[in-house]
Design brief:
Helix content: 55-70%
Distance between the termini: 28 Å
Order of helices and strands: HHHHHHEHHHHE
């Protein structure tokens, strides 16, 4: 093991001017490290959604009745508050863990050699989504869990998951121009699947906003529609997504598509089946908290699965290094 390099005054000044550039100059992560960092950010983006659901399902949404403090004059729960405060405060603290995971992804992407600007931008996009959604979460508390703001909060988290999933995929690809693996008709079918999935998620937020789990034991405003009617529409959209996925699998088999799109479509179909079972059981058992939490996790996994199907329709080879001389290397193929 080599010695730790001494930090000169010039190094310290450089680190203060641009910490990311300083780290990149002194550290080159392995591709697998960058992939793991991106995966950690994706996992934490799902965890924060599920734990946010736990806050709502345990009626702890106003456990910390103000923001950014937990109570007036205190950043942390006081002894006078209940366990609801601990649950809400714990969810807020997980935001810092999410920020750390996103920060690690940004640093790893910035330090990778050669430098890939696209990866760094995806990392920063996650950071700003986390920051903006933290503000939205504060607004949700300040307006007493208004269901429309809760829906925006969840949809913002869905956008974060999308960017994190794209970054994770991009860490395993090159920066060459994308090459389609299927025809235009198949691509259009998948885009219909993505659109239907988005509608399914939006309908789910309406069910949440109209349903019985308001997020707090006090009187909380609900969306003034019959939640069971919206739940049936939600189920219809779910069947449309399942049908499109099943049709996509048959089409991919018919055109002898590569293994990647077929595998991702099969995985999505299995996730949808599990999610469908949970959805129907929770509906007929009057929305027990545990099943609703599992359904929220399933919603995240379905969205990630749909995005993975979309991203599997093309491949991006490594960028060709155009170097002079016989020692020039050409990087081809995709990353492991």
């Amino acid at each position: 093991m080599g010695g730790v390099p001494k930090l000169t005054p010039a190094d310290a000044a450089a680190a203060l001017r641009n910490p990311l550039a300083f780290i990149a100059d002194h550290w080159t992560p392995q591709p697998r490290t960058v992939q793991r960092a991106a995966l950690a950010a994706l996992v934490m983006s799902v965890v924060i959604v599920v734990t946010g659901g736990v806050v709502r399902l345990t009626a702890s949404g106003l456990g910390c009745p103000t923001w950014p403090e937990c109570t007036d004059g205190s950043l942390t729960p006081t002894n006078a508050l209940s366990y609801h405060s601990a649950i809400e405060f714990g969810n807020r603290m997980l935001t810092y863990v999410l920020c750390a995971a996103v920060g690690w992804a940004i640093i790893a992407a910035r330090s990778e050699k050669p430098y890939r600007r696209s990866l760094t931008r995806l990392g920063w996009a996650q950071f700003w989504l986390v920051m903006s959604n933290a503000v939205v979460g504060g607004i949700v508390v300040l307006v007493g869990l208004n269901p429309y703001t809760v829906a925006v909060h969840f949809l913002s988290a869905t956008a974060l998951i999308a960017v994190a999933a794209v970054m994770w995929q991009r860490t395993r690809e090159g920066d060459g121009a994308p090459r389609p693996l299927v025809g235009k008709a198949v691509e259009q079918l998948v885009w219909f699947l993505v659109a239907a999935s988005l509608l399914l998620i939006v309908a789910g937020t309406v069910v949440t906003g109209a349903g019985p789990h308001a997020g707090d034991s006090s009187e909380v405003k609900r969306i003034p529609i019959d939640w069971e009617t919206v739940a049936k529409l939600h189920a219809v959209l779910a069947w449309i997504v399942v049908t499109l996925t099943f049709a996509l699998w048959f089409v991919l088999k018919a055109v002898d598509a590569p293994k990647g799109p077929l595998a991702r479509t099969r995985e999505l179909f299995l996730i949808l089946l599990g999610q469908g079972v949970i959805g129907y059981v929770q509906y007929f058992t009057h929305l027990p908290e545990l099943l609703v939490a599992l359904h929220m996790l399933g919603s995240c996994l379905v969205w990630i699965g749909v995005l993975r199907v979309l991203l599997s329709l093309r491949e991006r080879p490594e960028t060709i290094l155009d170097l002079p001389g016989p020692s020039a290397e050409v990087a081809v193929g995709t990353r492991a």
